[in-house]
Structure formats: structure tokens, C-alpha cells
Amino acid sequence: MKLFDSHSHIDDICFKKDFDAMLQRAQDASVHGIMVVGINEKTSKKAIELSKDHRNLITSVGVHPHDASTCSDDVIKKLEELALNHSCVRAWGETGLDFNRMHSPSDVQEKWFERQIYAGANLNLPMIFHERDSDGRFLEILESANIKKRKGVVHCFSGSKEEMFKYLDLGYYIGITGILTIKKRGQALRELALLIPEDRILIETDAPYLTPAPKKNKVRRNEPGFVKHVFQKLAAIKNADEEELSGIIWQNTENLYGAL
């Protein structure tokens, strides 16, 4: 069985002391591929540096909606150069809209979200999307974007059934996190997971955040090896053969990001 953590932030300083041990634990848990996601220029560069010494790591470049106030045409240009100069860069993002915490004003988020959609499309990179409490605005921007080929994933999906089907209709994958494993918080997601076609699902940790059960009650920090718990819960919900489903999801991830 091969698993792919399609969204992590293992560039975070909390992994510095045990980085190699953490990667070994991931291998021991059958996690043989990890996407390290950039959220600004600094973290995008760091993700690239980490990938140079580890062939099972791939990366993305982008500006998270929380960091939208720090974005500029110059930042976009530098991220484009990173993508062009490093083969480990397989996606653009994490970008999107987050109207929950509002670390950046909504109009600023929207401006740089749209700009990044086109930057990714111009480089033929799939998108890694973030959406929270945008009240339909995220979908409006996606649907109005004038791009020929749509490739991407809605990371940490937590929307409605209607939104999910619209994302699927646009051609995007749905990213499932450890929320799936949480008894109360994950109930709605478990119901929706039954409706997602198997060839459109990705699994992810969002490490060091969103630790899944049963690890949630034992450790605070999430890590890529824990994506196995997300996968096992998904297989149980779908009453699917684990070996077969793991192969499908691995192929989904490579279809999006390219072969590892």
C-alpha cells in the first residue's frame, strides 16, 4: 500500500528537531509521497530547499489568503521564477479566500487570488485552493476565471454538498483531512465523502494542523504519517478495499501533480 499526503506544511519550525525521524515515521506508515505547500515567498523557498534532499517530497509556491496583504506583482514574479527553475514545484498555492479570520482585507484577498489563478494557469501548474466562509465569492471567482484547462484541488474541504458538486463539475479534486475522523466535527464530511467519486479524492494532513483521531487525543502536532488514519476512515466509510483504494488515490495525486 502506498499513501500520498497531498498537503502538508512540514517546513514549519516545529519539525526542525525531528525532521528526519518524522519522515521515517511517514515511510513506516506507508506514506511514500508528501506535498510541502508554500504559503508565501519565504515558505515556498524553504519547501524547495527541503525537497532537494528528499526525492519523495514535492512542493508548491503561492500566497495564502492570510498573507495576501504581503503579496505584490514582484512577489508573484519571484514565485514564477521559482516554479520555472525548480522541477520539484508541481503546483501553485495555497491560495484562495478566507473570510473567517480576515488576516487580510477581502478585496485584497480577491485581487491576489485572481492574479494567482492566472499565474498558475500560465505555468500549466495545478492549483491548491483554500476556502473558508467566503459566502459563495470563492466559487464566483473560480467560475468566472477565463482559463482553458482547470487543474487543482480544494484543500481541506468543509463546504456544502452543492459547493462540492460545483467543484467537481469544474474538474477539481476534493482534499480530505483529519476532520473526517473527528466524531462530531466530521459528521457532515463523512456523509459527503460517500458522494465523492473515488477518482476525485485526495487525502491530506495539513500538518502540523488538524491532527486526526485517534492521534488527536495523544499528540498535538500532526505529521504526514498520520494521513494513514484519514485514509483508513475513508476506506471504512466507503466500504472499500484498502489496497485498491490506496492505489486509486495515489494515482489521483500523481494525475494532479505528476509522477513522483
Describe it:
With 260 residues, the chain is an alpha/beta fold. It has one domain (3-257): Metal-dependent hydrolases (TIM Barrel), CATH 3.20.20. The protein has 9 helices and 8 strands. The chain has helices at 19-28, 41-52, 73-85, 106-122, 137-144, 161-169, 187-193, 227-238, 242-257, and strands spanning 3-8, 31-36, 57-61, 89-98, 127-132, 152-154, 173-176, 201-203. The protein has an 8-stranded parallel beta sheet with strand order 1-2-3-4-5-6-7-8. Helix 7 (187-193) links the parallel strand 7 (173-176) and strand 8. The longest helix is centred in the middle third of the chain and has 17 residues, at 106-122. The two termini are 15 Å apart. The model has no long low-confidence stretch (mean pLDDT 97).
| Secondary-structure-derived class | alpha/beta
Please identify the top-level CATH class.
Answer: Alpha Beta
Question: How much helix is in the residues?
Answer: 40-55%
Q: What is the 3D form? A: globular
Number of E-type strands: 8
Radius of gyration: 17 Å
- Contiguous helical run count: 9
Name of the CATH superfamily: Metal-dependent hydrolases
How much of the sequence lies in strands comes to 15-25%
CATH architecture: Alpha-Beta Barrel
